[in-house]
Amino acid sequence: MCYGPTARPPAPPILGGAGVATSGRLTLEAADGNRPMAFSATTSDPDAPGIVILPDVRGLHPFFEELAIRFAEVGVHATVFDYFGRTAGAGERGEGFDHRPHVARTTTEGIRLDAAAAFAHLASDEGGGAARIFSVGFCMGGRQSFNLAASDIAVAGVIGFYGFPARDDAEDTEAPTALAQGYRAPVLGVFGGADRSISVSDVSAFRDALDRAGVVNEIVTYDGAPHSFFDRKSADFAAACDDAWGRILRFVGR
Length: 254
Fold this sequence. Notes:
eight-stranded mixed β-sheet; 8 strands; globular; alpha/beta; Rossmann fold
């Protein structure tokens, strides 16, 4: 698990002149009829880009809802969606919700369809009317965010925090390192140098695959930072959090 119940996103180091215009829960509708829960925040900047947030294994929970608001505060419309409507149904879930069996039942295609619904929402007047829409994901969502660059979604760029580039599994046909040759959007990858799940060689292999494919990329590793360091409670990594925020905002043109 990336983030526990009390984790919250760090604030951006500099807040711009934009503000939050609207925020709240909503229900999206995917092309196959699935209706995932989501949370969206729009900014007051009429020319703002948008960003779809792909959460960690816990799905839609307060860390990512607050992150959407932080994006709106710096002039980026943001929508985060839930992974588990296909197996757990819609509706509120408390902290006791057991996400693990539902993670095992998610599919890449289901996540892509739900992500596409979030992209469509951000492009709509209700979601802010964004002309350029990016994605950002964390852990499980980081990998899925990376691979949206190889999908049919018109993503302007993809960002992944500690998204697994590859696994020690010859059958891992959806590894970002393996799919990089088909990426059609720039990549920003953010990793922790002390992440016990993702090795330095994994990150290097991902960068090399992107370079060989001619994909514009920025891959950054913060020395000593663990998995899920992007958390305002992680005072030891406040500088890394600030730097990561700066890279995100430059990447999306803010």
